Amino acid sequence: MMTKIIGVGNYIPSKTITNLFFDQHVFLNENGILLKEDNASITEKLKKITGIEERRYADNTQVTSDLGVIAAQAAIKNAGIDPETLDYIIFAHNFGDVRFGTIQSDMVPSLAARVKHTLGIKNNFCVAYDVLFGCPGWIEGVIQANAFIKSGIAKRCLVIGGETLSRVVDIHDRDSMIYADGAGAVILEVGNDDGAGIKSHLSASYTFKEKDYLYFGKTYNNDGCPDTKFIKMDGRKIYEFALLNVPDAMKKCLDNSGYSINQLSKIIIHQANEKMDEAIVNRFYQLYDTPVPENIMPMVISKLGNSSVATIPSLLTMILNGELEQHSIQKGDVVLFASVGAGMNINSFVYQF
């Protein structure tokens, strides 16, 4: 029994935020001291490291669950299904609904419940719940949906990844320029015998030493409220952690699938940092003593930024909808999905289309 993707959808906000948006920001270090570089130099350095030129922010009237609804509606339409036939709605996020101009997160009821309500689903046995697993949350939702389907307790699941990170950033922290908003979704169901489906998966949580590489912390502005928390990260430690652990996890997942490295058509990896993702993929291929093929890893972070759980399903939708000129996925293609993020968590799955 295979779990098959039958529909995809995304929502990429229309509000484009270029690097010029940060020109007048007052950037401080963790001690509250003004950075020596001017903002033009800071943003140029960010671009060189992360590849980010632009990012998308949600409209001021929208919250994360609103973005998730739009992506879900697109996936349902793409799949051509009746939403009443869904057995599970799984919504991966990290900060809930944070309304523009506020600092309070709202997660009750769950975002999945809000999506189900807005979709107008009356089926009480369509179970709606949220997953908090850092940036790898959407992949973890897919893995959970796969378990439900393979066990026979579900036939069809909707898995959403959505986030409005622009609502939880410290404007005095230069890392705030990395984050973005968006949502993506897929419909999964019991597959037929055509060979398509999830072939293997892997998850891991590194918490002994790595728990606080990404965390909620106070603003770098010493005059700000110390009790108001914002997303913070130790970029160097995350980079080193990812390069050390993600390629090995990807290799284990691919090896478990039964496919060889030369059978891979695409690697769809969390759009966290362009240089880091490139280094991960390079090291992954080094483990097989194989050169990295051209166009193996599609990247959209330069224009969309890092929208956490939304990056992978949004990117998958763009590829399948023919929106990326140099990338496509055909029937029979083998694709490796992978992510890393707060926890610290890593996960991956191999899928044949």
From TrEMBL:
UniProt keyword annotation of Transferase present: yes
CDD domains given in the database record: KAS_III (cd00830)
Segments forming domain Beta-ketoacyl-[acyl-carrier-protein] synthase III C-terminal: 254-352
One of the protein's GO biological processes: fatty acid biosynthetic process
Residue stretches making up the Beta-ketoacyl-[acyl-carrier-protein] synthase III N-terminal domain: 129-201
UniProt keyword list: Acyltransferase, Transferase
Gene Ontology molecular function: any one: 3-oxoacyl-[acyl-carrier-protein] synthase activity
Organism superkingdom: Bacteria
InterPro entries per the UniProt record, alphabetical: ACP_syn_III_C, ACP_syn_III_N, Thiolase-like
Listed Gene3D superfamilies: 3.40.47.10
Protein name per its UniProtKB record: 3-oxoacyl-ACP synthase
Species this protein is from: Chryseobacterium oncorhynchi
